Amino acid sequence: MEIPGPLLIRVQNELRGSETALRERRVDYFASRLPPAEHWRLYPSFRQETAFLDIETTGLSPYEGIVTVVTIHGGGRTRTFVADEDLEELPAYLRRFQLLATFNGRLFDVPFLEYRFPSLVVPPVHIDLRFLLYRLGYAGGLKRIEQTLGVGDRTGVEGIHGLDAVRLWESFRRGDTDSLARLVRYNRADTVNLEPLLELAVERLSRRLLPSGPTASI
Predict the structure, then answer these.
(1) In the chain, fewer beta carbons within 10 Å around the N or the C end?
(2) Quick check: 132 and 80 in contact, CB under 8 A?
C-alpha cells in the first residue's frame, strides 16, 4: 500500500528527528511523543542514564517525617546519601540522569524529596515499577514481588522492613553506628534490586508487542 505524500514526509521528518535526538541523548524528545504509560520503552536505549532510587524516612508523610537515607544506583555506581552528612548533595547528583526508576516513587519517594528540596529537578522520565509490574499481574510490596519472581539479593538484611528502618535510624541517632550501617545496606538492597525488576518488566512487556522479536525500544 502506497503511503500518501504528506504522511510519508511527516514520517521521514519524525525518523530524522528521532535519530538526531537519540544521537544527542535527548530523552525528553521521546518522552513528549510517548504516553507516560509507555515510557518504559525508553529504558533499553537509556540504561546508562537511568537512576534507580529509593529513600528511607521517619514517617509516611513529608509533613510528618524526614528523609534519612537515599540511595541512587545507576551509571555504573551506587551512592548513598545520609541526612546531616551529605544529603544536600543529592539534587546535584540526580541531575546527571535522564530516567528515574522507583517503586511507588510517584506517591512516596518523589513527594518526600520535593518537599525536602523545593528546587529539586526530577529526571524528565519517571518509571514507577509498582504500576509497571501491576500491568504484568504482580501486586503488593516490593519484597513480596521480589520473592514471587525470584529476583534481587537481600543478603545481610533479610527480614528488615519499613518500620525496622525507622527504628534503625532512631537507634543510630542515639549513638549506635552499627544501626546506620545496617540501614544503609537495607536501603541499598531496595534500590539495587529495582534494576533486575525493570529489566524483567521491559523484557516481558516487549514480548507482548513483539512475541518472537527482540526487546522493544525506541
Answers:
(1) N
(2) no
Backbone angles phi, psi at 53, to 5 degrees: -135, 140
Radius of gyration of the chain (CA): 19
Do the Cβ atoms of 115 and 62 come closer than 8 Å? yes
Cα angle: 127, vertex 131, 133; to 5 degrees: 95
Residue 218, pLDDT score: 59
Instruction: At 6, list the grid cell.
Output: 504528506
Cβ neighbours around 127 below 10 Å, total: 25
DSSP state of 33: T
Contact call for residues 44 and 202 (beta carbons, < 8 A): yes
Place of cell 537515599: 70
Count of CB atoms situated within 10 Å of the CB of 211 = 7
| CATH T-level topology, domain 33-204 | Nucleotidyltransferase; domain 5 (3.30.420)
Residue 72: per-residue pLDDT? 98
**Grid cell listed for 191:** 534500590
pLDDT in the model for residue 51: 98
Strands of the sheet containing 99-102, edge to edge, are 77-82, 67-74, 50-57, 99-102, 125-128
Domain boundaries in the chain?
Answer: 33-204
Residue 155 CB-density burial (10 A; 0-12 exposed, 13-18 middle, 19+ buried): exposed
> pLDDT per residue over 100-117, tens digit each?
999 999 999 999 999 999
